[in-house]
Predict the 3D structure of the following.
Amino acid sequence: MRKTNLFSIIAAVGIFVAATPVIADVEVNYADFNPYASYGGNYMACPIAEVVNTGEKPVRLQDICFNVEDSENRLMKTIDMCSCVPCVLSPGESGYLFKQNTQVSDIANPFDCHIVPQFSEQEYAEENYRCELSDVAMNILNGDKYEVVGRATNTSGSTIYSVQPYTIWFDTNKRCIGVSVARRLNEMQPNEQQAFTIEARTAFMEDQTKIATYKIIVEEIPRVVITPPPVHIPYSEMENAE
């Protein structure tokens, strides 16, 4: 087991609620299609885009997809059900749109294509939930398998229902080349600490030597209690129920 100290840590500064019409702007810094040949002669891709919130309010990205276009900008395919990490971007914060290992064998020449990210935006209000990270390390296991370990501590004064850690991988040019998702941590009381492990195989990143650094993003999910409105039962139905 070999360890490296190349990492940076980002802990999301809260969870966001109360969607309203968007005012902020989100710009695309870059978008990479990342096609590759998989076993059996099939073609796969790991589309990734970096975006940044250039506005003054937090926003959540929704309806995320990638349009795959050829060299003449003709639409070849739309890759839908894509994700953004973090799901809510604070002003000035960067996020990463991605879809893990999607099938693109239906495209005649995927290596001659590029992607155009599509998404909608909603403005969100911020709640103060916070986790801090410690004891973070990256282990290179069996060839193409990486493992990032660490601990998350609930430093807010409220219970956090769940914590979702992610690892964002970068090459020497500081471009994102992959996103790994960890198993969610359980409910955390104030000052409680839990360990996490994020595993990633680098097949979709072609070559593990391309990894130069990484950062961890954690998103905190508070418990939301929804009280249903009272339901009026007509007197006649109450008699029938008896």
The mean pLDDT is 80. The longest helix spans residues 235-241. The two ends are 68 Å apart (CA to CA).
